[in-house]
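Question thread 4412

I'm putting together a teaching handout and wanted feedback from people who do this every day. The idea is simple: show students a protein as raw sequence, then show them the structure tokens that encode its fold, then repeat with a second protein so they can compare. Below is the first pair exactly as I plan to print it.
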Amino acid sequence: MDPSRIIVALDFSKKEDALRIVDQLEGVINFYKVGLELFLSEGHEILKILKNKGKKIFLDLKFHDIPNTVYKAVQSVLQYEIDMLTVHALGGTEMMKKAALAVKEYSYKENIPPPKILAVTVLTSLDEKDLVEALSFPISRESLVKNLALKAKQVELDGVVSAVSSVKTIKQVCGQGFIVVTPGIRLKNSNFHDQKVVATAHEAFSEGADYIVIGRAITHSNFPQKMIVDMINS
């Protein structure tokens, strides 16, 4: 298993806890996800620290607002040299277009490689019953994910965040070069916590995922480096 394709989620509220994990995984993992909890509590400072340590950053804030607001929000975070960021596909095609435009304009202006921009399809905490309750009409999870992935592809986003169960379908309709990042990764026999659609790392890569995101199964372990090395070597 290629460790460069593993993203560890720093789901903490304090930078000290997050950086302790980064230090414990030094030499093994180089790619980290910063989500709402850590970003809202520590702000841009955590991004600067991770970059100073030479780490890659997946900024998972799931931007979802009117197009112009998302355009400005995306531009505001690009100065921190992030490598990957997310918008929510349900924000619509115009919003996704503006996010993509923000990345292109900023990268051209600064003469830097553009970060990958991904659309979040359906959260792994939602099953089909939840979708019916939220949307007020029946739709299969697979159909919704497929449609949202196609919309993201049409507006030239780099890929999507989606459950392992949808990877093959997304690759079939969007092409092998379309990036799929899969959250909800668990070790065998581990706790699912609040996620309903989960898989192991081996299952994710076997289905064709480009990257996996794993969090509490590693970060809440007493021996995080051993856990992730065992997973890589399994």
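The second pair follows. I'd like the answer to focus on this one:
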Amino acid sequence: MRNICAKCAYILILQFVFVSVALSNILTVDEAGNVLAETDRYRVRFEHGVLMHFHNKLTQETYTLPPQGPSNARSGISIRYEEGLYGRKEFIDDAWEVEAKRLAPLTVEIAYDFDHKHKINKMIRLRIAIDPQTQDLVIHQSGTSAIGGFVGVMWGCGYLNGQQVDVILPARGGQIINDTTEFSERGFEYPENWEAQLIILQDERGGFFVRSTDTTYRFKEVRYRRNAEHFGMSFRTDNFAPFRGKNEITPIEWRLNAYRGDWQVPAEIYRNWMETTFQPKQPPAWVKDLELVIYAPYNPL
């Protein structure tokens, strides 16, 4: 009898834990495709496939501003219409039809369909989920086109507060980008000059980070674009060339989450993932004695 009571109590505890986890994670989508994701760590809102609001519950910081003027980050595709050209970007707007549906309690999918008799038919699918183990917000984006030449697909974060948030990027040896940076727009391509698939957005007490778990070395670009007091970040994933004949793109996984502390917190998370996934060779002992590294790329032109 005592064993039966103990088992019943154990089952009730498990049910309570599962219900508590489910209640702490909320993911909703409306008919227009607007998504609200909320966990114990963050509150996030998407519109037209773009992250428009991010609130860090761990630090009580909000990293976005109310929309003002055109968005500096948009979701869309890149298609090559003429041989020799890389690709023309086409962004989601009100002309695209939207179909939103729930795939699971913590997974939704929004399909953006552009069907016009005088233009090329195309579709973008954006799948957003909450990982109940880590509370990561997981994003998969795929697309199709009625013709070949499908180069890539992109999504982004818009209206980020340029006066509060620094972008810390493992690109060209390391970049810190903010409202004092001399350029207002720049792209960094992986794996050429964006060395690790990680973007850190740092405020005073914490921030949030975006990372890809792709292990196939798909070409990608992260693009920074500043406009007045706010800036946007766009994340593009490309097909492998040649693009002729390609009329679809398969998704890779992007993950984002909030953190408390400095940039080393997300950097350690990404480093641990890289070491577990790629199992790199350990460097020689003398590397630990290095105190200064000078990066001087040679460009004879």
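Top answer:
Good format. For the second protein you could add a caption like this: The longest helix spans residues 2-24. The CA atoms of residues 194 and 299 lie 18 Å apart.
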